[in-house]
Amino acid sequence: MFGKLWQILSHDVGIDLGTVNTLVLVKGKGIVIREPTVVALHKKTRQVLAIGTEAKRMIGRTPAAIEAVRPLRDGVISDFDTCEAMLKYFINKVHENPGKGMFTLPKIPRPRVVVGIPSGVTEVERRAVQDACLSAGAREAYLIEEPMAAAIGAKLPVEDPEGVMIVDMGGGTCEIAIISLGGVVINRSLRVAGDELDEDIINYMRTRYGMLIGERTAEETKLEIGSAFPLDSKDSLATVVRGRDLSNGLPKSIKISAAEIREALTPTISQIVSAIQEVLEETPPELLSDIVERGIFLAGGGALLRGLDKKIAEETKMPVYVADDPLTTVVRGCGEVLNNLDLLSKVRVTGGLR
């Protein structure tokens, strides 16, 4: 009886539990939450003070008694209790507003949850994500690999007997996969992605200009003028970066060009391109011919880096396409399998009841 009641009163949700951002999709309603994966805690009591956007604003600005933490690192849970608190907050938030003009019953947050996870995680790391979802209030928690979710969200024919190649570049991991007949044939999960690009900019500013900048400044600089390939119309872009002079500890401002930031990002971009080439080398010839014809599809926030598609196309000699709204492809894929339970049974890696 209670199981049926929960099904009636709960919204089934798909979650892209990302290292940088968490997106939540409600079945039948679309994406309802897009917030940074950041939690602000009191250091001594471990009380949660803020979650999401409000917590991100605190990064680098907290007093001694408060710390802003990211409960995921490289796509996996690094702080279980904090991650559980964040998931519980998002699940409860989804159930707070059933909609205007509706007869509203008290919502019992016991939803079916589908979560996208990196393909390279261990069984222990998978179990941690599932346990966090169940502890946060889910009645069922299913996990699917992020490249599969991204391919489904990008409307690629994953169940066909033909090869599909997807590169999902998020904040903590870069997922490269060849998919056919509803399964992953070959995959490579790199723990090198958007966070490493930010770190490249921080290191570049330190070694080239003797200036220390924070994570937020590095990310803003990457978004503003970052690129992976020379773009004539964009190479004249420049921005002012502010930080601390390491020689005297005083504030310092420097004007940086797009070409300099591209130079800083080159080592990490080259590492990702090399991994794509290695996966192509391992791909069976029949599937490779399909991929040559269809091209490589880019998803995730990293796909928005200017010129990344052109860089990969030049190195692989293959067409490269950026998925529509690449930031949401994984969570949209989770939403698709909520509507198609037969597909969910094929692509899930683990999941079920507590």
TrEMBL record:
The protein depicted here goes by the name Cell shape-determining protein MreB
Q: What is its main location?
A: cytoplasm
Q: Which residues bind ATP?
A: 171-173, 301-304
Q: Which GO terms describe its cellular component?
A: cytoplasm
Q: What does this protein do?
A: Forms membrane-associated dynamic filaments that are essential for cell shape determination. Acts by regulating cell wall synthesis and cell elongation, and thus cell shape. A feedback loop between cell geometry and MreB localization may maintain elongated cell shape by targeting cell wall growth to regions of negative cell wall curvature.
Question: Which keywords has UniProt assigned to this entry?
Answer: ATP-binding, Cell shape, Cytoplasm, Nucleotide-binding
Concerning Pfam families, the annotation shows: MreB_Mbl (PF06723)
What the record says about family reads:
Belongs to the FtsA/MreB family.
Q: What is the lineage of its organism?
A: Bacteria, Candidatus Daviesiibacteriota
Which BP terms in the Gene Ontology apply to this protein? cell morphogenesis; regulation of cell shape
Q: Which GO terms describe its molecular function?
A: ATP binding
State the compartments where it is located.
Cytoplasm
What PANTHER family does the record point to?
CELL SHAPE-DETERMINING PROTEIN MREB
**Partners and quaternary state?**
Forms polymers.
Indicate whether Nucleotide-binding appears among the record's keywords.
yes
